Amino acid sequence: GYGLLRMFSLLQVSGIKYNYWWISISLIGGVLISLVCLRQTDLKALIAYSSVAHMGIVLSGLLTMTYWGLTGSYALMIAHGLCSSGLFCLANISYERVGSRS
């Protein structure tokens, strides 16, 4: 997410006419990865795939190039960082107690 923000200045100049294509691709990718999440049995893989889906939403928010899109992307990146690290910690605790990642 942070790398996307650093590249944002380049996207403002050169990518304005292609933004709707990239937004569509990122949203479709997020939906497809979410469908993959529905079939996961491995808890850590589920968390990792959901991270990819979240970054697709962040990318589409950044590419709207509006105040609300940028603010929402910032908020989602912060929330994602806090929640994903906690979920990985809980998945590890569960694995240590149960002995299975399923």
Care to give the gist of this entry?
Its EC number is 7.1.1.2. The chain has helices at residues 2-6, 8-14, 19-38, 43-63, 67-98. By secondary structure, it is mostly helical.
Account of the 3D structure:
- The protein is built from five helices and no strands.
- The protein has helices at residues 2-6, 8-14, 19-38, 43-63, 67-98.
- It is an all-alpha fold and 102 residues long.
- The longest helix is centred in the last third of the chain and has 32 residues, at 67-98.
Mean pLDDT, as a whole number?
Answer: 87
SSE arrangement, N to C: HHHHH
Fraction in helix: over 70%
Radius of gyration: 16 Å
Sheet of most strands: none
Overall number of strands: 0
Shape: elongated
Tally the structural domains: 1
Report the uncertain regions: none
Strand content: under 5%
Distance between the termini: 28 Å
Q: How large is the count of helical segments?
A: 5
Structural class: mainly alpha
